[in-house]
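User: Quick sanity check before I run a bigger batch. Here is a single chain. Can you write out its predicted 3D structure?
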Amino acid sequence: MFQFIKRLYEKQKQLLLKFVKKLTNRHLEPTKLERQNVQKALDIFSRPLAAALEALRRRKVSGFMGSEVTISFMLKIIKWFEIHDVCNYTKAIYKRLPNKAPFTSTDDARLKWLEDFLKWLKEWHISSVEKNHFLTSETLEAITITTKSTIAKISHLLRDAGFTFVLTRRFNSDNLERKFSAL
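Assistant: Done. Predicted structure follows.
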């Protein structure tokens, strides 16, 4: 996957106007501490970067042919992040990001997509011959638990608790982590 992103970085290094403004060498060669930086991951798994790769692939630019699987993977991860980062009622409209719309129904197609995402993740894990090309067991477990609990919480809040909409960003544990990191 990173081979295409590295090629994009090398290609745009010589250009005055960049395809992706936030792509730096620190994204491609992070230190151990930087590997834990969520913002760097969000910069890599971003719509502008996926769009740049897609544009180069469609134009048949040398070195970007065969990037379809990488782009598809990136778009899955981007959608997963967007679904888990619904923060207000209007962002989906103004930013034109339908995945960031509040959940208002248990029949929302994004809930089905999350269930399908879990199936895809399991199939990917089973089919990965080389475990170096898969997530760590801890990351796999965290994504699985987060996804299952998100589906369950949204369904419960809308169906049983009488909520009219759900914002998923409120499900995170940042405040708790911040509290214990200060101790």
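The radius of gyration is 18 Å.

User: Great, the batch can go ahead then.
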